[in-house]
Amino acid sequence: MKTFEDLALKDVAPLTESTDYKDRFLGEYLETKIRYNKLHKMLIKAESHNLDFTPDCPLNVLVAQIHHMGNYLHAMEVRAEYEGIDLGFCIKSLLHDLESAEGGCCVNAEDPTRY
């Protein structure tokens, strides 16, 4: 069974081009969350001196970036609550779609009841 950690940017990119604002919102949220998680893992490795490369910018810039990304994700999660978008359900549905399609298209824009 696919998990959130299995998601790649290419998996969620079609959502950002949907005509449905909830799909676009989900796509933007997931793209940010995926990037946040990758940066977080990199910073953990940097802090433990296990990073296999030297970043081009100082780590404090990356720490500031992840801080702002976290605040942005928080704002999106609050907005989702206000707008009745169940991010957990949407993510599970997306993972199910990806698993069913074996990596194919993850958006069914034709089904307005989907989310």
Number of helices: 4
Portion of residues within helices: 55-70%
Distance between the termini: 21 Å
Largest sheet: none
Q: What's the order of the H and E elements?
A: HHHH
Low-confidence parts, pLDDT < 50 over ≥5 residues? 108-115
Shape descriptor reads globular
Q: What's the pLDDT, averaged over the residues?
A: 88
Strand proportion, as a percent range, falls in under 5%
What is the SS-derived class?
mainly alpha
Number of strands: 0
Cα-based radius of gyration, to the nearest Å:
16 Å
Which short descriptors sum up this protein?
globular; disordered C terminus; 115 residues; mainly alpha
Question: What's the SSE blueprint?
Answer:
Layout: H1 9-16, H2 21-47, H3 59-83, H4 87-101
Describe what you observe in this structure.
The structure is a single chain. The protein has 115 residues and is mainly α. It is 65% helix and 0% strand. The protein is built from four helices and no strands. The chain has helices at residues 9-16, 21-47, 59-83, 87-101. Helix 1 (9-16) packs antiparallel against helix 2 (21-47). The longest helix is centred in the first third of the chain and has 27 residues, at 21-47. The chain starts with 8 loop residues before the first helix and ends in a 14-residue tail after the last helix. The model is unreliable at 108-115 (pLDDT under 50).
Task: Provide a compact summary of the structure.
With 115 residues, the chain is an all-alpha fold. The chain is built from four helices and no strands.
